[in-house]
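Lab notebook: predicted structure, single chain.

Context: the supervisor wants predicted structures on file for every construct in the current expression panel, including those that have not yet been purified. This is the next one on the list. No modifications to the sequence; it matches the entry in the shared construct table.
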Amino acid sequence: MLWCLHGFFGSAHDFDGFDFGVEKECLDFFTADVPTRNDFPFKECRESLKRFAKEFNHYVRTRDKNPSLLGYSLGGRLALHALLDDPELWKKTVIISAHPGLCTEAEKQERAAADLHLAKRFLCENLAALRSEWEKNALFGGFRITREEIQFSRNTLSQALISWSLAEQQDLLPQLSDLQNDVLWVVGERDEKFLELGEKACQVMPGSRFCVIPQASHRAPWQQQQFFEECVRNFLCHHEEAELTW
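Prediction complete. Output recorded below exactly as produced.
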C-alpha cells in the first residue's frame, strides 16, 4: 500500500484523482473531523517531527506488511522523518517538493518567528480569508488546487505551524547520506528553490532518483498530473534493477 501525506492547508482528498497503480491510503491532518477518529493518533499535530515519525511508523507497521510512502511539501518532510526513523519499514518512498532542512540558526530563528506569527493568525482570523491569501503564495506559481468545500480545524493548522515548523527540523542531508532506500524525489522545473534542494538531496542519497516535472512549480503533481503519475507508477511498479529515466 502507498501511504500518502498531504501538504499544509491540504487534505487527504488532494490525492483522490491520482492513479499510481497501487492501493493508496491517504491520511488527513487538518480537517475538523480528525479529532473524532478514535483510531487515529495524530489528532492535534502536537507531537514533534521525530515523535510523529515513530508513532506513524508504528501505526503503519500494525496495518501494512509491505508499505511504500509518498509525501508532498510538509507531508514530504514528515515522510523524510518517517523514513529516517525506520528505513527497513518502507519499500519505496516518493518525496515531492520538500525541504531537507535549514542550515543555519539564523535561518531557523527567522522561520520560527514567521511561523509563530502565522500560527497566531490562524487562531483568530477568518479561515476563508487566510485560505485565499495562502493560495496567492508565489511559491505555487499561480496554480490553485480545486477542492470541495472542506471544514478545516484552525487549532490543528496553528499547532502544525509550531510543532512541524521547518525551524524545528534538523538539516537532514547528513542523515540522508546513510540511506540505502529507493527514493524518488520529485520537483517542478519552475520551482527553482526546491529544484536546487532536491538536487542536493539526491546527490547524497545513493538509492535516489530525481524526477523534474516540466512546466510545473511547487504543485507539480496537480499541474502535470499525467506526467507525475507515470513517474510514480514506473518507480513503484518496476523492479529495483530496472533503469528509470525521465
